[in-house]
Fold:
Amino acid sequence: MKYKKLPRHPLGFFPTPIVEAKRLSAHLNGPRIFIKRDDHTGLAFGGNKTRKLEYLIGDALLHGCDTVITGGAAQSNHCRQTAAAAVASGLKCHLVLGGKAPKTPSGNLLLDYLFGAEIHWTGILRKGEKIPEISQDLMTQGKKPYIVPYGGSNIIGAAAFVEATREVCIQLENLEESVSHIVFPSSSGGTQAGLIVGKRICDQDFNLIGIDIDKDHSGDSSYQEHIFKLAKATAEALEVEIDIQLSDINIRSEYVGGGYGVVGEAERYAIKIVAETEGILLDPVYTGRAMAGLIDIIKSGEVSRNDTVLFWHTGGTPALFAYAQDLI
Ligand SMILES: *Cc1c(COP(=O)(O)O)cnc(C)c1O
Structure:
């Protein structure tokens, strides 16, 4: 299906590899498992936000902006990649982070400092709630700020995952493989919305299973609705006519455990098992939880040995170093 292409500013290395995790499959006595290595997107230790930022920074440059501003948790992968993307594009970066400045920054936050990002601490607000205010201040100082939304999840960010879906479809075709399920962590919705639209554009019939990692929006229907609306708006912006239903958004909220960024036994086990069987590092907040979800889905029989799963490794590994006490 033909669709409109948005301006893209190269920042990463694409396509990212797909590897088969044979020892993990055997260990779980489960289906074949492929892993899409978006932990290797190339920008500052990688991650799925690099994809979105190629389009978001593309848009910022198109609008002649000189500063980008975004927000998230102190260990936000999105903020770390935005800080690096800004440097690589000659832009200044302001980050609006939840919590307060620690004595010694570690993990992603350490990298934010190395990239020279200006950090604004906002206490309990960890979703960039103060961005409009700070953006206003920057404008009065004569700057031209570009607001990158929380998680990079707007139409432009989601469009990057339409491209990512196409990338995977081409790779699988070249490998002469097909998958029945794609499993990935879901948090601000851009990844999932893009995958849904991409699946339809590429005319695929795999099942998309988003593992919700944030308790804030588990249990109510608002997150599912948010993804639904974003997917529809993205399809419209790309000028494709596809019929998307609310029921197309498969989001699992039963794995949120102790909430955002709280590592429990299930995440610890998932991270260890993948490290020990494949030599691949997952992260404590997103992919560790998504893999814990996949392991449970395999155990429950929902995915059988005759299926083939693509697990989307969306990155996040620098946070491992900030979670040492929870992982051993
Ligand atoms: C942001 C992020 C996600 C979630 O992607 P959304 O598009 O926000 O749903 C998953 N994994 C990692 C490592 C991330 O940083």
In short: The chain has a mean pLDDT of 97.
